[in-house]
Each structure stands twice: as C-alpha cells, then as structure tokens.
Protein: Sigma-54 dependent transcriptional regulator
Amino acid sequence: MIIGQQQGLKATMRQVDLVAQTDSTALILGETGSGKELIARYIHQQSHRASRNFIRVNCGAIPAELIDSELFGHEKGSFTGAATQKRGWFERADGGTLFLDEIGELSLAAQVRLLRVLQEGTLFRVGGEQEINIDVRIIAATHRNLAEAVTEGAFRDDLLFRINVFPITLPALRHRSEDIAALTAHFAQKASDKLGLPLTLATPQQIDYLKQYHWPGNVRELQVIVERAAILGQGQYLAIEESLILPSAAPKALSATVTTTSILPSSDFPTLDEVVKRHIASALNHCHGRVEGPFGAAKLLALNPNTLRSKMRNYGITRQNFSQLSPRELAD
Ligand SMILES: Nc1ncnc2c1ncn2[C@@H]1O[C@H](COP(=O)(O)OP(=O)(O)OP(=O)(O)O)[C@@H](O)[C@H]1O
Structure:
C-alpha cells in the first residue's frame, strides 16, 4: 500500500500511473529509503505484465566476475563451478519486469554488457549457442545523480540515454511532511500486527515533532522508529521522543569538531573565532540549515535560537548554504 498518493506523492503518482499503462523503460530517482522499490513493484502490478515475474536485482551486489552469468545465465559446464544450467536475470524476468536497483553502482564492464542486451533484445547464455529472444520491461532506480556520474566517467552516457526515457523523482520525506501522520499510522498498524501489540496512534504533538526531523533515511527510517516506539511503549503508547532520533545525531557534530581542531600544527592553529564559526557551520550542516526546534542547530549547540542567529550574523553564516529543506520549510 502506497501512503501519500493523494498528498505528498500526488504529482509523482500521476507520472507513475502514466508510465504504468505503457511498456516504457522507467528510471526512478530518489534518496535511500524513499520508496523506489515500492513504486517499481506498483508499476509492475499496474501493467499488463502483472501476472508475470517481477525480478529485483541489486546491481551494487554483483561481483564483476559473475556479471555475464548473472545477466545471461550459463550452460552446464561452461566454466568451473557451472555445475548446472542457469537462467540469467533477463530470462527469469521474461514476459515480466526486471527491476535494476542501484543501477548507478554497476561496473563499467557490466554497463557495456547490459546495454548490449537492451539494444539487441536477444542474448546467448554463457557457453550457449542458441540465441534467446527476451521480452522484458526494464525499471531502473538509483539514489545517485547519473548525469554527474557520466561527467565523472563512472556511468556510460549511452546507457543513461537508454534508461532515461521516463525519469520519476521521488521526493525526500522531509519535503512531504504532510505524509508523516498517515505513514506513522500505517507503520504503527504494521508494528502492532507484527508484534501482536494493541494498536497505538501517535499524538498530534508527536506528529509535529516528527515533522521537524530531516529524515536522512526517509520512509524506511520512519518505519524503524515507529516500530521501535511501539516496542518501547508496549502497546500502551508510542514512545516517540527526542532520544529516539537524536542520539545518532549529536556525536557526528562533535566528532567533526574534534577532527578539525586536533591535528593542526601550532603555526596553523585556528583562532577561537575560526573554531566557533566552523562548529556552528558543522551544526547547521548536520541540521540541514534548521536553527530552531528539537532538530535544530541551536538545540545541538545548547544555545538559545536567538543567540545562535546573532552569532550567525556576526560570523556571516547563512542557513541557506546548509539547507536541503524546501523554501517553505526554511521560512519556518
Ligand atoms: N509511500 C509509502 N507508503 C508506505 N510505505 C512506504 C512508502 N514509501 C516507502 N515505504 C516503505 O519504506 C521502506 C523503504 O522503501 P523502499 O525499499 O521502496 O525504498 P528504496 O528507495 O527502494 O530504498 P533503497 O534506496 O535503500 O533501495 C519499505 O518498507 C517500503 O514499503
């Protein structure tokens, strides 16, 4: 079930529904945990291929020496270790959908092989002599910026052209905080079913609180936090509180300070002002430009928000430089 179809994902779902009706290649872009696989499965389920296989391949997890065999399959005895005949991804997905997750992680050699199959629509198993036709719909996903990867030489531009027919960008959870209440209720229900605990809902205060966090792990992180909160609350309440989210946050800001100050030779020793400025910048960076609230830099630095703002003015620091928040959120 996809939560947010009528809210934060409304515009995205319009594109998803359009592409689902066709047989076009789709490329799903979005941060980790934002729901790329969920959307890929939905596209498959809505398509005329729904009754056939949906095969997910994690492109980042395939050793280079196995790529041919994984893609094309192999015949028995075609290489040491090929004890039986094996069908590759394309054959297993035949008639259905092949979901190439984290396509940005494929090695360049693997990209060449993949492109060839996509272009030719046929393949030979490793060690095989029979040409096999394949009928597969491709959905690819990545959290990487593929255009940048092309510039860096890490991704082939011809493969990007091939898969970039219909790009769909999933917004990060911090940019669709209107979905947080429904997602929290959904995951609370799931946690109660899974753990056999009575269902407990989040209070409006807890939802407000969750809306202020920047969710680097997106929907997956929310799911984990709600499940943990259900266990800690023992089915009587959801134990959503600061300590659930912040412990991993605070040490990062601290360690950043330690590494910037500890190893400098004395002639390069930073002035106190420089250290303070860097420390404020590091806190703002960590809090995605947010100054106030439970996930704001002021809280992290144990300062009054107005004091922090005044220090930022003095040091010429603006929060926009650190923000991945939308202009609407920045105005908060
Ligand atoms: N809109 C949503 N409604 C309900 N559940 C969601 C939604 N988005 C994501 N989820 C859930 O969050 C978890 C993470 O989603 P998913 O695996 O699809 O993300 P992803 O972007 O593919 O992650 P990764 O980048 O790590 O591969 C899954 O359990 C998924 O079911």
Observations:
- The CA atoms of residues 146 and 160 lie 7 Å apart.
- The beta strands are 26-29, 54-58, 73-74, 86-87, 97-101, 122-124, 131-133, 137-142, 167-169.
- Confidence is low (pLDDT under 50) at residues 247-267.
